[in-house]
Amino acid sequence: MDEPNSYEEQRRRQVEENERKLEELRLHRLSAAVREAAVKPMPVSSTPPSSQKRRFAVRFLPPSDLLVPQTKELKLRYLRAPPPPTRRSGRVASLPKQPDYRDKKAPRRGLPPDRVYATDEARDYAFTKAKELNNQLFSAHPSFIKPMTRSYATGHLLTIPQQFKKSYLPWFDEMIFLVDEEDGEFPMPYMAQHGAIGSGWNLFAIGHKLADGDCLVFQQVQRTKFKVRF
């Protein structure tokens, strides 16, 4: 009967010893806290994302003496290889060296002989004469002054001043007639959307030898008829 009692006594002492160690380590409280944390939801941070701390990546650079300055010449040296030397056959090796035109730009060509531009003095003189002529016309018929540029003298369109177009010309496409100083009539279409005289103007300009710097006076004698004075 002594052996069972001694076993029970030893087991009881072992259990008490384990409980004392658990109390010292507080493991039962730690396990309870872990269970409570697993049940509770994670708290949501009230701090806006913009105010949160940002993480920056750290990059280690080599010493300054190992860095090579990236100049424009150095970049071109790595991007573009030097041109290979020109090979010359044995038959022409004894001949004198020919000039190299690869890196030389061609000389700029001058203007064609028929492309002549008027000077500022000539433009001012022509505009003054056209203004004097316009003041002498009958005021009952509206008129406008149109200086000629290179594009007007050789082109296919002639734009009409915006204010004159809104006040006196139709709002839709229509045929108009230009009458020169010899009473010759030249029909040509008027494009209301662009406010310009279309095809037919080029023949009128070439036939009357208009050039850059000229200044014309257009007098509206009828709704779709203009007297052109040079």
UniProtKB/TrEMBL annotation:
It comes from the Eukaryota. SMART domains: B3. The keyword Transcription applies. GO terms for cellular component: nucleus. Keywords: DNA-binding, Nucleus, Transcription, Transcription regulation. CDD domains: B3_DNA. Residues 35-56, 78-115 are annotated as: Disordered. The keyword Acetylation does not apply. InterPro entries: B3_DNA-bd, DNA-bd_pseudobarrel_sf, REM16-like. Gene3D superfamilies: DNA-binding pseudobarrel domain (2.40.330.10). SUPFAM superfamilies: DNA-binding pseudobarrel domain (SSF101936). GO terms for molecular function: DNA binding. It is found in: Nucleus. Its main location: nucleus. This is B3 domain-containing protein. It comes from Aegilops tauschii.
